[in-house]
């Protein structure tokens, strides 16, 4: 049964995001929340790592967190699906467990 | 309590001790979980491996050296402490740098068995996927 991984730290400040990517299993989902969404910015050094992970796991980011930080929809890297808080709830319900990377 | 099935809990510890409250809070929650007779395992990765370092003494920074509490976990039926090999290596540590933590095994005539198990990253990822509940600190 699959795991929903949440990341709430910027990959440019902490290793939480990188550590998460190193521990995801095929079929898992990764949801960027709070400062974690900064990793979703297109053209960022971390976006490349996300693209590699995209082949194994589904990647999501919280829309209001992107908006709050001035990351426009068109600035979000390919392969990242933007979801609202309702989408967050759906993801939690669809996976057997949540693993938070703080 | 008996009508509830036992769940497997995995506590993920990723922070060094003392700099933040996470490590101490994790220990508190682990002991609470164990008191409710759940199946508890701990994982130490990233800077969390420093929580198990031998020779900690926080007296000089005016804090409690809570490292000793890890040695008591066996008495609370917490017998599995997984430590990620890659996290140790990245930080110049090996298992010899960690506290010896043991528990008594009633199936082995109460012999003292090591609680720490060094696992690689892939095995730790598998453990996350095999747990009912993952609590992160």
What structural keywords apply?
heterodimer, A: 102 residues, alpha/beta, Hypothetical Protein Ychn, Chain: A, 5-stranded parallel β-sheet, globular, B: 137 residues, two-stranded antiparallel ribbon, 4 helices, 7 strands, 25% helix
Task: Give the helix/strand layout.
The complex is a heterodimer of chains A (102) and B (137).
Chain A: E1 3-7, H1 16-23, E2 29-32, H2 45-53, E3 58-62, H3 63-68, E4 80-83, H4 85-94, E5 97-101
Parallel strand pairs in A: 1-2, 1-5, 2-3, 3-4
Chain B: E1 8-13, H1 22-35, E2 39-44, H2 68-72, E3 80-84, H3 85-90, E4 102-105, E5 111-114, E6 116-119, H4 121-129, E7 133-136
Parallel strand pairs in B: 1-2, 1-7, 2-3, 3-6
Antiparallel strand pairs in B: 4-5
Question: Which class do the helix and strand fractions of chain A yield?
Answer: alpha/beta
Low-confidence stretches of chain B: none
* Binned strand content of chain B: 15-25%
Q: What is the overall number of helices of chain B?
A: 4
Oligomer: heterodimer
The shape of chain B, in one word, is globular
The secondary structure category of chain B is: alpha/beta
The side-by-side strand order for the widest beta sheet of chain B comes to 6-3-2-1-7
Overview of this structure, please?
The complex is a heterodimer of chains A (102) and B (137). With 102 residues, chain A is of the alpha/beta class. Chain A has helices at 16-23, 45-53, 63-68, 85-94, and strands spanning 3-7, 29-32, 58-62, 80-83, 97-101. Chain A contains 4 helices and 5 strands. Chain B has a single domain (8-136), classed as Hypothetical Protein Ychn, Chain: A. Chain B contains 4 helices and 7 strands, in the order βαβαβαβββαβ. The model of chain B has no long low-confidence stretch (mean pLDDT 95). At the A-B interface, α1 and β5 of A face α4 and β7 of B.
């Amino acid at each position: 049964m699959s795991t929903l991984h949440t990341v709430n730290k910027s990959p440019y400040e902490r290793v939480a995001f990188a550590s998460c990517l190193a521990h995801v299993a095929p079929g898992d989902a990764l949801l960027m929340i709070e400062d974690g969404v900064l990793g979703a910015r297109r053209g960022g050094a971390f976006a490349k790592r996300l693209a590699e992970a995209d082949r194994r796991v589904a990647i999501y980011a919280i829309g209001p967190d992107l908006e709050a930080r001035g990351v426009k929809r068109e600035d979000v890297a390919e392969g990242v699906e933007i979801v609202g808080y309702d989408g967050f709830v759906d993801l939690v319900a669809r996976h057997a467990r949540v693993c938070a990377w703080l | 309590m008996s009508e509830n099935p036992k769940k497997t809990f995995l506590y993920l510890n990723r922070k060094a001790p003392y700099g933040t409250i996470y490590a101490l809070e994790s220990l508190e929650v682990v002991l609470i979980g164990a008191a409710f007779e759940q199946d508890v395992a701990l994982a130490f990765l990233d800077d969390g491996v420093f929580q198990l370092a031998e020779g900690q003494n926080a007296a000089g920074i005016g804090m409690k050296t809570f490292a000793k509490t890890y040695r008591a976990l066996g008495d609370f039926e917490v017998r599995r402490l997984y430590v990620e090999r890659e996290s140790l290596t990245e930080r110049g540590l090996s298992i010899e740098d960690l506290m010896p933590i043991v528990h008594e095994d009633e199936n082995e005539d109460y012999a003292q068995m090591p609680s720490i198990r060094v696992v690689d990253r892939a095995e730790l990822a598998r453990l996350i996927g095999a747990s009912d509940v993952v609590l992160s600190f």
